[in-house]
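COMPLEX REQUEST
Ligand: pyridoxal-5'-phosphate
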Amino acid sequence: MSKTLQTMPGYGIPLVLDKAVNVSECIRLEAGEPNYVTPKYICDAAARAMEEGYTKYTPLLGYASVREAIARDNSEKVGRRIDLSEVIVTTGATMALHNALRAVAEEGDEVLLPDPCWPAYKMQLHSLGLKAVPYLMDEKNGMMPTREGIESLITPKTSVIIVNSPSNPTGAVFDEATIRMMIDLAVQYDLYVISDEIYDFLTYDGVKALSFKRFDPDGRVIMIGGASKKYAMPGWRIGFAIAQPEIVQLMGRVMTTYGMNTCCIAQKAYEAAITGPQDFVRESVESYRDRRDTTLAICREANVPVFSPQGAFYLWIDISASGMSADRFAEVLFERHLVGVAPGPAFGASGEGKIRVSIATEKEALCRGVRWICELVNENR
Ligand code: PLP
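STATUS: Structure written out below.
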């Protein structure tokens, strides 16, 4: 059996998730999944597509109409017209990330990734034989990395830097100066930038999530996005990458060997999602904002330190005053109150003493869960 897979780092979150799925009355604050079903106009488009015969293999890079729609949908963000040849449709952002890494890194390369970050990055790097080198999302710098923090980690073997803004798990949104600094480093040390922008639609307080691709000087930025969070479509498995055409072609080669095309019905559904009315997105963003404000207020009132997220749907809460490790805190919280949260160390070494709470949960239960968290933090103060 594969030693590589046997030694792959775990996802870190299922500890609570596994228990949580078996108990119906528990409050699920550990999962990064919208608490909505996919809007009806999208489901209707999927049903229509099946009836119209969209049931066959699709082109490896995706249907041209879907790639066109993705290109149009992202051109304003990127600040120029995007050509069809720059777009590939993938089985979720997860596969876009994998294919991008496969396309621009060689086994043994070092890849810089945020600490904390979404745990799948580390797992993908491990399975591809790439070395994960975490750079700190610095609390003292608004949860953004610093030039020194990154530059000191670069070696001749570094080939890629992964960025994720808005960030899972912190909700930090990189400002323009930080993006320019990172692009500058990428040029100086000749690195590719894989930019996971899956939460770019979800920001607060007038903050805008700027795309790294907008600042791409020469085709070294691979932008990644998807449908899971924005249109409440996590089960449909649909995402995309925007990259220079040669990279798109290489990513297409990976498709051939890892499952051919992305599901034809999901592709047509996504096309309908991005070309149809955007009321669902506006309304859900407004609802996430309301939940963010309410839960931040609960934490502040209880004197529990929490990073104020400018984007995404998570709270990164400091539970160190409880005197427990983050793993233990998550366990006790679940045992006592049936509240599931994701322990910080699942996202990186800097996550000790922190938990991630998803606010993509029904508001009343969410607030109850956050109150229990605050109570547990303050119990031993
Ligand atoms: N990227 C980030 C930062 C995420 O948080 C997630 C899911 O939690 C994904 C990618 C996965 O996206 P998809 O469902 O499109 O594969």
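REMARKS: The pocket of pyridoxal-5'-phosphate is lined by residues 32, 92-94, 118, 164, 168, 196, 198, 226, 228, 234, 239 (CB under 6 Å). The chain has a mean pLDDT of 95.
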